[in-house]
Amino acid sequence: MKFNAKSVVGSVQRLMATAQNGLEVIRFGGLTHDVESSPFEVVERRRMYRLRHYFPDDTTPGRPVAVLVPPLMVNADIWDVNAEDGAVGILHRGGIDCWVVDFGSPASEEGGWERDLADHVLAVDSAVDAVCDATGSSVHLMGYSQGGMFAYQTTAYRFGKGVESIVTFGSPVDVVAGMPFGLPYGMVSDVAEFLADHVVTRLPITDSMVRVGFQMLDPVKTAKSRIDFLRQLHDREALLPKERQRRFLNSDGWVGYAGPAAADLLKQFVAHNRMMLGGFVIRDQPISLAELKCPILAFVGEVDDIGQPAAVRGIVRAAPNAEVYEASLVAGHFGLVAGSMATRHTWPLVRQWVDWMDGDQPLPPEIAPMTEHVATNRPNSAATRVVHTAATMVEAGAGVGKALEGIANNTVRGSIELAGEAARALPRLARLGLIQPHTRISLGRLVAEQARRAPLRDLFLFDDRVHTNAAVNARIDNVVRGLISVGIRPAIRVGVVMETRPSALATVAALSRLGAVAVLLAPGSELDRAIELTGIKTLVSDPENLRSAAATGTRVLVLGGGDTRTLDVPLSDKVIDLEQIDPTQVQLPAWYRPDPGLARELAFVLVTGTGDRLEAKYITNHRWALSAFGTATSADLDRKDTVYCLAPLHHSSGLLVSLGGAIAGGSRIALARSLDPTRFDEEVHRYGVTVVTYTWTMLRDILDAEVFKAGLRSPTPSAPSAATPMWHPIRLFIGSGMPAGLWRRTTEQFAPARVLEFYASIEGDVVLANVTGVKAGCKGRPVPGTARVELVAYDPVTGQIRTDASGFARRCADNEVGLLLGKATEGIDLSDGGLRGVFTAGDAWMPTENLFRRDGDGDYWLVDRRDTVIHSARGAVFTQPIVDTLNDITAVDMEVAYGLSVGEHALAVAAVSIRKGFRLEPKDVTEAVQALDPDQRPDIVYVVGEIPRSSSYRPSTRAVQAQGRPRPGPETWWYNRESDAYEVLTEAEATALLGND
Predict the structure, then answer these.
(1) What share of the chain is helix, strand, coil (3-state, %, to 5)?
(2) What pLDDT was estimated at residue 421?
(3) Which long-range contacts link 390-393 to residues 24+ away (Cβ below 8 Å)?
(4) Of 883, 899, 988, which is closest to residue 939 (Cα–Cα)?
């Protein structure tokens, strides 16, 4: 190497410049520069925010207005970090009036460390109101990262009022689809919940922690930027243009994160993914992004590790009623809003978006309608970022690496999710195994446990309001005091005739806490006969059912609707308003012990049937707990789920499956006022419903209304083909009694949700569940932890169990119809229908009231009740296979099967109603019943205009029979065994089959 004076002087000058600039950086934190911030004026100061108005001297009328929202951990100067080449500078030159929400630092603001997520959403809401009032026009609400999430949430909270469009930059919506760095969601969800509950609320997240955390998220780029800075430290002119941005990233741009806000973020949007599912809570009000109807532009960073592209694109499903567009840039999380990429691409595109919204300019080609995200299971990770920053030429190697990464991610994710399901199921099964007759367990006790563990966690959602565990538990305690004040004591039976509402659940739970027995009665049912059957002396009613309850002459306690509503019946010693009782003035007696119920003790009485078939079904605390924990285990219910209770409480599905499963699983419970398809559509999204409960044909009304028609969204100008699937958060329907055809319609219209059908016997502890949901109409297999079951040979004509040569009951072979038995638990009273010595001497079993068959896979299929088997001249005919077969015909709406007595025997008769717009022909019936053995096919099938249903939505056979016998005509068909087909019933054939009646 040659040395000369020029090279030596140059080296010395470079060294001196490096030293001088380095000393300046050490003393002042950076290089002094002449770049000034854009001018702004603080026009409003509130406890939660300051509202900046940039370029306040520009009073050009009619300009479009933009409100920009920063994320919590970044200073509001993010919008001006590049001065005239930053967001507000470029947008202002484009003729846009810019306003910025400045949350400040929690370290310097009064009460800053106590701020929660709702505080920030309400702050943005207030700022939008202020800007709208000041400018007289709607705003384009824009947000970066979590600021974009605030923009979505605030607009949904406002139901779109005053917001013309939303623009977001790297703002994740569906965290499940795109976890940062490709981490498995199951693991991240559990960690997030732990941090929210035990760490962030106790440990303030300071600005230095935020800065270090962000730098650790991308150590490669952090190290590269520092090395580049040191290498150019001698060249002041090269560093100055980026100096403000460097100082922003290294020190000035970060602010602390309030613990409550971080806890809300981790719980609602990471652990529970409620941005996507809906049902996130802002001040006790559930909100869903389905409320968004204004146009949305989402900027996607293709190498963004924090706002993963898959997570950002979740908005297209979360906001099905909005036009959603995207602009995809090869940029990281910070590069979307600051730096050369933002200067050259992001902000010019935003300006063009606003011009297009005003109708002045066409939409630029870089902005296109967002397409439905298809999961690749290969999220952009840190490896992708390294590849991007290091070199772009190794595309083939990167592709192989991504494929290997995808395989590894799938394996890890599957293992963690499987382990998570097991971790949730095992404690429940273990608790079931520990329940003994003397164990204290009850509904009231489980609610109290949840209130102790998580007092602020959501429990009920009703009428767009959220009720926490603590609030519900306090309400239950207050109702207990009211009940005690009017003389209710443990073990007393109290009737409950109420619609499904929070007061009804509070009443049932309060009776449980008191140790009394809740007798659940259907509104509008035969109250007088039910009261006589169960021996109750007191009814608890809501205002809607007060008149019918008071008409029975029984003492009525009125609860619900608050203390200011008016009642249809005047108060007296027979009608007492519990809402008027001050619980603080009630002295608890010495005998009161909360939640005294033992497993063996009676907890609930259900009244089923009508007329002479009215029956009381008795449910112990153990029986209720068995169904509750069994449902939670089979449906894998946990805190992430919101269970929508369509099933009424007076039905076993509502009490045991809906309420019991949700309480045992720790899930939120959304209560529906009524079965209203339009309201169902709205509340499913608003509450973030993941599980829907049903009974019998309840879902038929929702399917017929086609609220999610064919799974397609309505066409929009951006998607005129309307080919985008309509998204919903439902993953599961759970209940009992759904016909096979309705089952298939449900899974088709609500794909990919599945049906989980339960069978729970009142007698004994038998619980079956079709967990896989593959076989429509099947009741499944015994739930772990419930009673062992056996299927014994049974003669439906004589009503006797068939025995073998030794005198013991004979077990059924596969597909043989038999009586279902459940193993009796220790201490159970066998005097009421129990059996001993069934398979071995001294064994004890409880027979159910139902006949089943078991297929070759071990799954159980219901075939009939013992008392509804049709005794025809050719032998026993079972009704349930007939019902399932006919329900599978597309044209059939509902159906019932029954025995029509003709002489000494009965004919198997089926009545069907037809779906609107369809037509049923005899050949359709002939083809459908080919699945049945000829002896099991109905003798007559006829069409009726409508089949009435009970309060639990069960088609009423009794009501159809009351309409009279089937009449000859073109819509009545008889089974001709010679031709093996159904033919029109003529007068001659009717006389031959039915006689002259």
Answers:
(1) 40, 20, 40
(2) 45
(3) 390/220
(4) 899
